[in-house]
Amino acid sequence: MRQTGGGATIDSASPSRSYFTEKRVGLGNNSYLGLSLPGSGGRVGSGSKKKKVTKAERLKLLQEEEERRLKEEEEARLKYEKEEMERLEIQRIEKRKWNRLEAKDLERRNEELEELYLLERCFPEAEKLKQETRMLSQWKHYIQCDGSPDPSIAQEMNTFISLWKEKTNETFEEVIEKSKVVLNLIEKLKFILLETPPCDLQDKNIIQYQESILQLQELLHLKFNVATEILLRQASTLADLDSGNMEKVIKDENVTLYVWANLKKNPRHRSVRFSETQIGFEIPRILATSDIAVRLLHTHYDHVSALHPVSTPSKEHTSSVTELVKDDVENVEKAISKEVEEESKQQEKQSHLIQEEKLKVEEEQDDIEVKMSSAEEESEAIKCELEMKVLSETVSAAQLLLVENSSEKPDFFENDMVDLFQFTTLGGVYHLDILELPPQCKPVKGWMIVEILKEGLQKYTYPPETTEDFETENAFPPIEVTLEVHENVIFFENPMVVRWDAEGKHWRTDGISNVSYKPNERLITFSLDTFGPVTLIQDAHINMPYQSWELRPLDVNKVLLTVTTVFTEIQIQIKENLCMLSSVKLKDKKHISVLEGTWMTPTPFIIALKEAGLNIFPTRYSHFYVVINNKVPLVEVKAYRQMALLSSTFAFGWSKWNLLCNSTKVVFKV
């Protein structure tokens, strides 16, 4: 069949038919050929009668289309199956490889855990060594026979205190000499409270030690007052030839005394400066004309602030573990004793055998004795192992207590009260007192006659409780005081001056004005409304948080810890159970400290650094005053323990990511 139209001719039998078949648009009954023939100027059938597609042709076209679709689907399925098989094969190979790695890692981990268990035995062994050292220190004190009491024995302490109370008429120099023994006893008692594990401290012992400390502190201050009174009775004989007033300075490593007695009562002599120092007072007219003495007793220690409470953990867990292990020990002992009894019964039976088997019986007896000795050795080994287990639990509980944060903030403090959990006293305490001048000694026919007042040394009340007899309102102005800051103390900022409130038993910031500090001369001047103990304080967390830290090995069991803060860089050497301050840098300049080069055990070392103003040691209340990323205590303790075990071989350092991770993770560089 031929069809013409638009100048185009198509032979139905020609191959061009397939061209139009593949390019059809639609397969319905009303389908049309919508393509133009090459070389023609119009659509197929546009100018002639359209061809009608038969049913057979439509079926054939549909069949071809279905076959092509099935072929494409089959190819796609085969391709998918091939890719899936390849993927599964790769996954199987990766899984097999991962399983091999896991098995190898598990094997390595088991070996490392066994090694770790062996290494961690050093913690209870170290605690056992500390216990033996404490026992040895008591023995050393006993064999010294130096006359000083054992601070841990209440009877000896009571005897020492009673005997010293009975001594009278001691000079200031004698009291200073005796104070060295007293301060040593107080220091030992504080170390006992700090170094003894909480599980080994009973409540009655804590109370006993704290009471002994308070009694020694009160008695020492009382002795200083009595010695001051004896000194002031001789003021007229010690008067200065130029001014006519008495001035005395006594210096010691722990105490410095400045005393001025107003003998001439010259109203124009209001400025008091002790010889060769800038320390002194500017007293008002009312005091310049009174029978008074001004005393500045600078104690390089703080016996005024209240004692910090001793941390005692909940002993439920430790006691339960201890009871459990004790039961195990008892069970082992019972089993072994039963074994020994059976062996001895056998021995008795064998002893009744006939004489002919005597040699055999002796051999069996030897075997029984060997078994009994081995059983006893096994019993001792098991008991030792269980004791180490108890000790390990105790050490873990004590270490956990060191890093645990308190859940409750310290008691609420008023605006003028000083929070000693946030601030720390530095440089000791300056006891400023205005005293009534006691009756003076009078020489009579080669004798010295002096009137001794029954009430002892009396303080002069300034300002007086009633001021009605005085004309002007400003008759009792604040007294200007100039003090010297202790040379071995570092202040990173200007120190704050606070006074002691005897009634409230705390430090306060009110009643002090016109404070000025000269860091080069280390002099601080301020005006005080009323006299009493004053001290200088600094923020206890001024060096926290650290900017960086590093722990680097130097030798076997010897490392160097470097802590960098905003104000300073501190290097500490650590070997075995000793610490030493290696160097201190302030503003990139080396600072010479008296602590450098002195090896000390950890607790005295930490206290010495705090007293020198180099406090880099957080407490359980520090998280209330410093913004940090608190960690779970157990995680922190485990990290410290692993660092301690590896510190002789690996170096450790801080990581910025530790601040960004959560509280259950610890990140640092190794």
UniProtKB/TrEMBL annotation:
Coiled coil (residue ranges): 53-116, 337-378
Q: Which GO terms describe its cellular component?
A: axoneme
Q: Where is the signal peptide?
A: none
As recorded in Swiss-Prot or TrEMBL, the protein's gene is named DNAI7
Q: What is this protein called?
A: Dynein axonemal intermediate chain 7
Q: Which residues form the CASC1 C-terminal domain?
A: 505-668
Q: Which organism is it from?
A: Macaca nemestrina (Pig-tailed macaque)
Give the Gene Ontology MF terms in alphabetical order.
beta-tubulin binding; microtubule binding
- Ranges where the IC97/Casc1 N-terminal domain occurs: 68-268
Protein family according to the UniProt entry:
Belongs to the DNAI7 family.
Q: Does the keyword Coiled coil apply?
A: yes
Keywords attached to this Swiss-Prot or TrEMBL record, sorted alphabetically, are: Coiled coil
